[in-house]
Amino acid sequence: MPEISDHLDHGLSVLFIGFNPSLLSGETGHHYANPRNNFYRILYRAGLTPRLYDAVEDQDLLKLGYGFTNIVARPTRGIDDIARSEYAEGRIILHAKLLKYRPKIACFVGKGVYTEYSRKSKVHWGFQNDPVIPEVHEFVAPSSSGLVRMPMEEIVGIYRQLAEYIEERGE
């Protein structure tokens, strides 16, 4: 299955970084395309988007200053299908993307994504101290997967912190 295209640009407010695309994302070519994934609903409810977007509109979020990439580009059924070597390679590729595009905020969609990237074992929700690339703020948010058992209001509240930070700074 082909990789889906990143949505990257210089000067992004937020680069959302997932584990890897789902099989449905791989089939459609759109980020967070599985209807059970709550990504676009979370963004809207948290105040990060002015309306509810659909996965087929993922490229339109570039106009809002939001980009998309993954630590592993290969679509899989789940993260259990990702090899350790893919994370190692993905970590290097992601670091290069962050250096090249320098988004204001790298939002890791899931603690596991961040721990794979940063190699830090203990992380908390929200902004992280001591970012890997000092000029790029690192924000860790819950996964938007429908399999996550955290209450939706709690997830939205964490993403709302990101929206408030962006609004306060006019980014």
Automatic annotation (TrEMBL):
Its EC number is 3.2.2.-. Residues 9-151 form the Uracil-DNA glycosylase-like domain. The keyword Transmembrane does not apply. Signal peptide: none annotated. The keyword Protease does not apply. InterPro entries: MUG/TDG, Uracil-DNA_glycosylase-like, Uracil-DNA_glycosylase-like_sf. Keywords: DNA damage, DNA repair, Glycosidase, Hydrolase. It holds the Pfam family UDG. It comes from the Bacteria. CDD domains: UDG-F2_TDG_MUG. Coiled coil: none annotated. GO terms for molecular function: hydrolase activity, acting on glycosyl bonds. This is Mismatch-specific DNA-glycosylase.
